[in-house]
């Protein structure tokens, strides 16, 4: 697993993907938080980081599929999948290696935003007038959301040997699970099931974390979605053997 | 037995890609896996290496069932897939280190191992290049190096020489011969000469079925002792006297003056043709036994079954 992880990280670094992803994420988040008047903290006047946490998921919705789209589809297209899968390495190890490489890149792009946290913290009047527990909860939520999006991306890329298809599919799936389900719940046809549908959506648990309460049920939700996606990926890869 | 394939069957929908094939190979043996394109060679190899699953039947590598214990069995295999897929953006050393690691080699043995295969496969001069910069021949060597790195007892090579120039083909053949001493090598090909040059034994398959499994010596002769002669005269002649020779079974004209004879015993037939030319004063300019081409042997063998 470690070998696959290292290989993927190296290929991120060699192919500039890592730098571009981190740079684009930080630039767009930086612009949204500090420059664009609509969402700028400076204009808003409150020491609050909510613009990072409400807009970050939408930036990730496009960036993470761009990271993960090549994971399996590229291997399939150039045939190296055969090389990898005939080595003494289980499919599960291959998936985890790739998953954690993608996840590591997401974490690497979130870490520099801690500088924003520090800035907002010191800009507050009085200094430190910031909802720290809410922000920590939001960070946990954002990292876990990244984890879910990477898992969705890994799964989509296992479905096809076309990277564009993998990208579009995972953007769509990320959208559906993030806010699509909860938006659907507002349609007046579900009756009592609408609360159930609402709770299936990621934004429900993400918001709950951002209130500063790290609830086990929210964590279980994130981890289960990741686990389901990874198991589906494994199912898809194992299907070769049938 | 190093490799034991038993009643292997693979269905793609209703189509039988591999149909109840059984064969085995032992240590030190080079087994040629021969068949036309689409015969099921690659499918068989993919199942034997654990990439695809079989519909029924089993494959054992050194006594380990690939289906039941894939990780242990895969450790014993070095595999060069068809078309030799490689990570083109990796450096040769990086790639070999990566395959060594996923083969669970220790770092000390890996260092020596990488050095050994780099030398063995003639990559010393190129070893610091990216794989994407290499020519096809060198890429093929990297593919072989990757298969040999963990010193596996079983080597499975899927058409290792396609697309190479004649010199490179010779080198790859020499390499295969060299490593085969203490290993079992199975390699597939659709080129008869290649199989003749390398193999101890040949397994011939067509349309997923096993047609023949015998030592190369019996195989290359064909089974009836028939041969093809190419006879060239300066000017077109009347073919009746040629056809009248006792050993000649069939005469066909390829071009004016050039004839193809199907004969029973090649040596007797050739001297008879010479004799005829001398006696009847025919301007004979060429006489040659054609190497029995794959097609002909193949047709012969498929007819027998």
Structure in words:
The complex is a heterodimer of chains A (242) and B (305). By secondary structure, chain A is an all-alpha fold. Chain A has one domain (2-240). Chain A is built from 13 helices and no strands. Chain A has helices at residues 2-14, 17-35, 41-44, 50-68, 70-78, 80-85, 91-110, 114-123, 132-159, 163-185, 193-200, 202-210, 216-238. The two termini of chain A are 24 Å apart. In chain A, 39% of the residues are buried. Chain B is of the alpha/beta class. Chain B folds into two domains: 3-219, Rossmann fold (3-Layer(aba) Sandwich); 226-302, Alpha-Beta Plaits (2-Layer Sandwich). Chain B has eleven helices and 14 strands. Chain B has helices spanning 41-48, 70-75, 92-102, 107-120, 136-148, 166-179, 192-198, 216-220, 240-244, 266-280, 294-304; strands at 3-12, 15-25, 30-34, 56-61, 64-65, 77-80, 154-158, 184-189, 201-206, 209-215, 227-233, 248-255, 258-263, 284-290. In chain B, the strands form three sheets. Chain B has a six-stranded mixed β-sheet with strand order 6-7-8-3-9-10, sandwiched between helices. In chain B, strands 2-1-4-5 form a four-stranded antiparallel β-sheet. Chain B is elongated, with a radius of gyration of 23 Å. The relative contact order of chain B is 0.13. Classes of the chains: A mainly alpha (242), B alpha/beta (305). The A-B interface holds A 2-4, 6-7, 10-11, 14-15, 78-90, 240-242 and B 46, 49-53, 70-72, 74-75, 77, 79, 81, 83, 85-90, 94, 98-99, 101-104, 146.
Q: How would the global form of chain B be characterised?
A: elongated
* Average predicted confidence as pLDDT of chain A: 92
Q: List low-pLDDT spans of chain B.
A: none
**Strand adjacency order, main sheet of chain B:** 6-7-8-3-9-10
Q: How many angstroms separate the termini of chain A? A: 24 Å
Cα separation of the termini of chain B: 27 Å
**Count the helices of chain A. How many?**
13
Provide the succession of SSEs of chain A: HHHHHHHHHHHHH
Q: Which stretches of chain A are poorly predicted, pLDDT < 50 over at least 5 residues?
A: none
């Amino acid at each position: 697993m470690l070998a696959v992880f290292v290989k993927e990280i190296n290929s991120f670094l060699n192919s500039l993907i890592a730098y571009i992803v981190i740079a684009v994420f930080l630039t767009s988040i930086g612009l949204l938080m500090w420059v664009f008047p609509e969402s700028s903290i400076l204009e808003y006047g409150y020491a609050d980081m909510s613009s990072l946490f409400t807009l970050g998921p939408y930036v990730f919705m496009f960036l993470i599929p761009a990271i993960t789209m090549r994971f399996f589809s590229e291997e399939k297209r150039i045939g190296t999948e055969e090389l990898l899968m005939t080595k003494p390495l289980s499919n599960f190890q291959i998936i985890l290696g790739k998953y954690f490489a993608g996840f590591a890149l997401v974490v690497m792009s979130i870490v520099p935003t801690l500088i924003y946290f520090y800035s907002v913290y010191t800009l507050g009047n009085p200094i430190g007038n910031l909802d720290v527990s809410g922000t920590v909860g939001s960070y946990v939520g954002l990292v876990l959301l990244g984890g879910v999006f990477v898992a969705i991306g890994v799964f989509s890329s296992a479905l096809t040997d076309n990277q564009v298809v993998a990208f579009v599919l995972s953007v769509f799936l990320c959208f559906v699970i993030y806010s699509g389900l909860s938006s659907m719940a507002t349609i007046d046809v579900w009756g009592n099931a609408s609360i159930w549908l609402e709770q299936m959506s990621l934004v429900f648990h993400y918001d709950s974390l951002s209130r500063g309460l790290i609830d086990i049920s929210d964590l279980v939700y994130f981890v289960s979605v990741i686990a389901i996606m990874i198991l589906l990926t494994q199912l898809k890869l194992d299907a070769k053997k049938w | 037995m190093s490799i034991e394939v038993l009643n292997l069957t693979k269905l793609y929908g209703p189509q039988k890609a591999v149909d109840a094939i059984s064969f085995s190979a032992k240590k030190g043996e080079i087994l040629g896996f021969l068949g036309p394109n689409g015969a099921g060679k690659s499918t068989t190899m993919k199942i034997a290496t654990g990439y695809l699953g079989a519909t029924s039947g089993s494959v054992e590598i050194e006594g380990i069932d690939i289906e039941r214990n894939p990780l242990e069995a895969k450790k014993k295999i070095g595999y060069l897939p068809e078309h030799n897929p490689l990570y083109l953006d990796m450096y040769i050393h990086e790639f070999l280190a990566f395959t060594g690691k996923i083969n669970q080699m220790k770092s000390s043995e890996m260092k020596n191992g990488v050095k050994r295969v780099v030398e063995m496969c003639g990559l010393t001069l190129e070893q610091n290049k990216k794989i994407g910069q290499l020519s096809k021949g060198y890429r093929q060597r990297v593919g072989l190096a990757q298969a040999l790195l963990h010193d596996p007892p079983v080597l499975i090579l899927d058409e290792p020489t396609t697309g190479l120039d004649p010199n490179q083909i010779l080198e790859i053949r020499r390499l295969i011969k060299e490593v085969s001493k203490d290993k079992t090598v199975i390699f597939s090909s659709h080129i008869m000469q290649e199989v003749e040059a390398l193999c101890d034994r040949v397994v011939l398959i067509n349309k997923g079925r096993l047609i023949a499994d015998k030592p190369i010596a019996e195989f290359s002769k064909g089974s009836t002792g028939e041969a093809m002669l190419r006879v060239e005269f300066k000017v077109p002649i009347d073919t009746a006297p040629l056809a009248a020779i006792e050993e000649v079974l069939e005469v066909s004209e390829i071009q004016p003056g050039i004839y193809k004879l199907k004969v029973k015993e090649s040596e007797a037939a050739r001297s008879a043709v010479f004799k005829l030319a001398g006696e009847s004063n025919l301007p004979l300019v060429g006489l040659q036994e054609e190497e029995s081409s794959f097609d002909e042997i193949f047709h012969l063998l498929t007819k027998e079954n």
